[in-house]
Amino acid sequence: MKKVLWIIGAVAALIVIGVIFTISVKNGLIRQDEAVNENWAQIDTQLQRRADLIPNLVSTVKGYAAHEKEVLSAVADARSSLLSAKGPADKAGASAQMTSALGRLLAIAEKYPDLKANTTFQRLMDELAGTENRIAVARTRYNDAVKSYNQAIRQFPGSLFAAGMGLEKREYFNPPAGQGAVEKVPEVKF
Questions:
Q1: pLDDT band at 149, cuts 50/70/90?
Q2: Contact, 146 vs 171, CB < 8 A?
Q3: What stretches of the chain adopt beta strand conformation (E)?
Q4: What's the start-to-end Cα distance of the chain, in Å?
Q5: Is it true that domain 21-183 has CATH number 1.20.1440.20?
Q6: Of the four listed, 81, 105, 118, 181, which is most buried by Cβ atoms within 10 Å?
Q7: Among candidates 175, 173, 183, 178, which has minimal Cα distance to 87?
């Protein structure tokens, strides 16, 4: 009788350990999935912040450089592309387009000393530089979270549960091929 109770106890202990293990693995995968979502939200927030600064910057430059319409419309188009982009690849491409357009806008500022001295322009440029730095940090954190998540769902034991939980490999936030400019923060000179 004692032997039967011991066997039942051992089986029950194995079942409890298995349940705890399963719960632990699933909760870990959910935590990593949410970390990726959170880090993506940070990138999206910073890209939105940059897009929100653009109309004020364009308005300030317009007063000094009304004849530079082509560059100003390129900035407006890049902003629209960024706001309508979905997913890491589209956002990275739109971000590269925005970086290029902002570079051309900053080149205009070099032509107009009065514009460079304007306090509104200086404040906007400081905010833009800070936002560009935040985007770089958010992109790094997001890619780190994606790496950790992708490893977790592909390695044992996460691979046993990932498909059943509907978890799939996530996409990194990388610049499009040939877009090395995305890696650089626009240079602001006064």
A1: very high
A2: yes
A3: none
A4: 88
A5: yes
A6: 105
A7: 173
- Tokens representing 175 are 């610049």
| DSSP state at residue 44 | H
Domain ranges of the chain: 21-183
What the block records as the tokens of 109 is 């500022």
Q: Please give the model's pTM, rounded to 2 decimal places.
A: 0.73
Specify the range with the lowest mean pLDDT, choosing from 31-35, 154-158, 178-182. Answer: 178-182
Contact 29, 165 (CB under 8 A): yes
pLDDT at 76: 87
pLDDT in tens, 77-122: 998 999 999 889 899 999 889 888 888 888 877 777 777 677 888 8
Q: From residue 125, give the alpha-carbon distance in Å to each of 45, 132, 135, 170.
A: 18, 10, 15, 33
Are 102 and 61 contacting, i.e. CB atoms less than 8 angstroms apart? no
